[in-house]
Amino acid sequence: MAVTPPGQRIWWNEPIERVELIWIIIAFLWGVFMFGFMIAWHFIGQQNLSKEAYRVNPSDYEQKVEDFAKKQGIPVVKPQAGTDVYLLARLWQWWPILELEKGVSYKIHLSTLDWMHGFSLQPTNINISVYPGIEHIISLTPTQSGQFGIICNEFCGIGHHTMTGIIYVTEQKRAEADHSAEGR
């Protein structure tokens, strides 16, 4: 048998071997260090997003996103620099498609109408669980231009694998402004 009972019935009164005690102390100290560093990394690592979240009626949020998309342009929404941007998760899409400007800060509002979804912005490392009835607000300043995919990283049903969205980040508005300034 691979596992045998201890030789003495009251095994916990046996002295601990020196090497075993050293490993227990090392493991304990490493755990304390990692616990403290996990908290510190939130501030020094610029890894975790500080965000706001508010309760919201899903149908009210849906109307807010519809109004935002119609005002800014559909199917690709190009919001004014530095404004609030609204994204809606529903089976099985992130809507609308956004076109943001590089180097400009935006407040991204996220919510879902039906199930819990995940907001994972690829290839960057931004991951948020999005819940129905909760409006999540994150501050985002794109630092690179290009196409960024949004995928759902919380299983949301049979069409989960198709739940994607896109954010385009362009330098176009600045380039147009520079071009028009040269023409004067």
Helix content: 25-40%
Strand content: 25-35%
Based on secondary structure, the structural category is alpha/beta
**Which series of helices and strands comes N to C?**
HEHEEEEEEEEEEH
Stretches with pLDDT under 50, minimum 5 residues = none
Please give the count of helices: 3
Broad shape: elongated
What does this structure look like?
This protein is α/β, with parallel strands linked by helices and 184 residues long. Helices cover 29% and strands 33% of the residues. It is built from three helices and eleven strands, in the order H-E-H-E-E-E-E-E-E-E-E-E-E-H. The chain has helices spanning 18-44, 58-72, 172-183; strands at residues 51-55, 76-77, 84-90, 93-95, 97-101, 106-112, 117-122, 126-130, 134-140, 146-151, 164-170. The strands form two sheets. A six-stranded mixed β-sheet has the order 2-5-11-10-7-8. A five-stranded mixed β-sheet has the order 1-9-6-3-4, covered by helices on one side. A hairpin with a 3-residue loop joins strand 7 and strand 8. The protein starts with 17 loop residues before the first helix and ends with a helix.
Attribute tags:
alpha/beta, 6-stranded mixed β-sheet, 5-stranded mixed β-sheet, 11 strands
Provide the fold topology.
Layout: H1 18-44, E1 51-55, H2 58-72, E2 76-77, E3 84-90, E4 93-95, E5 97-101, E6 106-112, E7 117-122, E8 126-130, E9 134-140, E10 146-151, E11 164-170, H3 172-183
Parallel strand pairs: 2-5, 3-6, 5-11
Antiparallel strand pairs: 1-9, 3-4, 6-9, 7-8, 7-10, 10-11
